[in-house]
Write a structure and sequence with these properties.
Order of helices and strands: EHEHEHEHEHEHHHE
Bound molecules: hexanoyl-coenzyme A
Number of strands: 7
Mean pLDDT: 94
Helix content: 40-55%
CATH superfamily: NAD(P)-binding Rossmann-like Domain
Strand content: 5-15%
Number of helices: 8
Radius of gyration: 18 Å
Low-confidence stretches: none
Strand order of the largest sheet: 3-2-1-4-5-6-7
Structural class: alpha/beta
Number of domains: 1
CATH class: Alpha Beta
């Protein structure tokens, strides 16, 4: 039974805006990224999601495919974003089977709560490798396809026609590093690197038609991130401390995604869209 699409995005978006486009997403079996991809599929896109766990990734791909009759959604499991060759093979397979790569979501991430003195060198390296090198590997593997898409969709070499967007990247980051966040030094360092990468890609690849932006979610209800980073009994109080008075929803991250990937985001490049109900402006600690 397909999920109601307005559970995943607002009803301001037109149903066909991503027809014949392809989104490639790492971390695509996760709660946030699967919602981003699901919304894109509802609006016409085909998709390729990448994950480490084969069953989880393939099952999620099947589930997302129910979003729209006739959509093609491939799940490629057993791909660790720390392995450049595996990502390159996945990108090539995506382009071969679906025809192109027009949008990329670099969403794979690793996290746990630990104070710096209990993080081993390997644990620190693992998180930086997944978040920073994983994002680099993702962009590296998909950039030739993204440039091709951006060029194809621009009439005058600079401006995309209506619903003709392509060549767009979203990095999924966080707000932890805007302030100091205890138990999160590893992720703060990694996400600062991801943000820096997004800006460099925007400046460097912008002239080829690429846009590269960051979505920084705050605490989003019912996600693996919240489950890993907070205790259930603390969540009600922590939600009250957020200016919006609640945790966010995956739908709100999906909406931000559609904003950046559709015509509404044409002239947004190198930016971070914080979707956190104003949380980081308070203390940065959820
Ligand atoms: C201290 C820990 C730890 C913990 C693992 N390690 N958990 N150290 N406290 N709780 C250490 C291990 O002991 C090991 O170091 C090293 O990390 C690598 O762990 P492995 O399990 O061997 O390897 P790996 O498969 O590479 O695991 C990566 C991982 C893991 C990041 C540690 O948690 C993971 O795979 N996570 C993926 C999914 C995930 O985290 N999703 C949530 C994303 S939420 P030693 O020295 O023993 O070898 C998110 C939200 C961002 O990103 C912010 C939102 C606000």
């Amino acid at each position: 039974m397909p999920l109601d699409k307005y559970q995943y995005m607002s009803n301001v978006w037109r149903d066909d805006i991503f027809n014949n486009k392809v989104v490639f997403c790492t971390g695509g079996a996760g709660t946030i990224c699967s919602a981003q991809v699901r919304a894109m599929v509802h609006l016409g896109a085909n998709a390729c999601i990448i994950g480490r766990n084969v069953d989880k990734t393939e099952n999620m791909a099947k589930d997302i495919a129910t979003a729209r009759t006739g959509s093609k959604v491939i799940g490629i499991g057993a791909v660790d974003v720390r392995k450049p060759e595996a990502l390159a093979a996945a990108a090539d397979r995506c382009a071969k089977e679906l025809g192109s790569i027009d949008f990329v979501i670099a969403g794979a991430a690793g996290n746990f709560l630990a104070p710096m003195d209990q993080i081993s060198p390997n644990a620190m390296k693992s998180v930086i490798d997944i978040d920073v090198l994983g994002s680099y590997n993702t962009v590296k593997a998909t950039l030739p396809y993204l440039i091709e898409s951006a060029q194809k969709h621009m009439t005058d070499g600079k401006t995309p026609p209506p619903n003709g967007t392509g060549g767009r990247i979203i990095f999924v980051s966080a707000t932890l590093h805007y302030t100091g966040t205890p138990m999160q030094s590893h992720v703060s360092v990694a996400k600062a690197g991801v943000d820096a990468m997004a800006m460099s890609v925007a400046i460097e690849q912008g002239p080829k038609g690429i846009t590269s932006n960051v979505i920084a979610p705050g605490p989003i209800a019912d996600t693996e991130g919240v489950a890993r980073l907070s205790r259930e009994q603390d969540r009600e109080n922590s939600a009250k401390s957020i200016p919006s008075g609640r945790y966010g929803t995956v739908k709100e991250i999906a909406d931000a995604t559609i904003y950046l990937f559709s015509d509404t985001g044409n002239y947004v490049n190198g930016e971070t869209l914080v979707v956190d109900g104003g949380q980081w402006h308070t203390s940065g600690v959820g």
